[in-house]
Known about the structure:
alpha/beta
Amino acid sequence: xxxxxxxxxxxxxxxxxxGAGHGPFDQLQRWQAQERIVALCPxxxxxxPTPRPPAEIPGGQGALVLDGDRQVxxxxxxxxxxAFIAGAQIALRxxxxxxxxxxxxxARSPSCGNLQTYDGSFSGALVAGEGVTAAALRxxxxxxxxxxxxxxxxxxxxxxxxxxxxx
Length: 167
Ligand code: SF4
């Protein structure tokens, strides 16, 4: 059975920087009942506490953080890059361990965002870009969706399972 990496905050776990969570989402609850979900909060797994100061990537490109060309900074300008990288590395370990091909991650997060992130100005401005973990997963060949793309994720799952021999 194909398993799916999911942001812990989308499962209602109170791991967001402000101590909140999100959901519930019917599709995620179905996948949980099927024991398909591998849950991860990259920021907490990378060593950050909850609650924690909000953080953004100047320019909003997580791939540049992976390449060592950008830092992740809190609103007080503390460098939290190492924790974000550590969280992405843990995500990659889970991918290898569980043979993951699909992830559903929280939109717009500097770790988890797959299409947009905040631009580093802490003004709420968004740019096209990925969070650090989302970029690492994409580079590893994982299809990354967000909570607004659950039907696309379900379609991708169905396609993968059709293509796989049943065993
Ligand atoms: Fe954790 Fe990602 Fe949710 Fe942020 S968006 S709280 S890093 S799971």
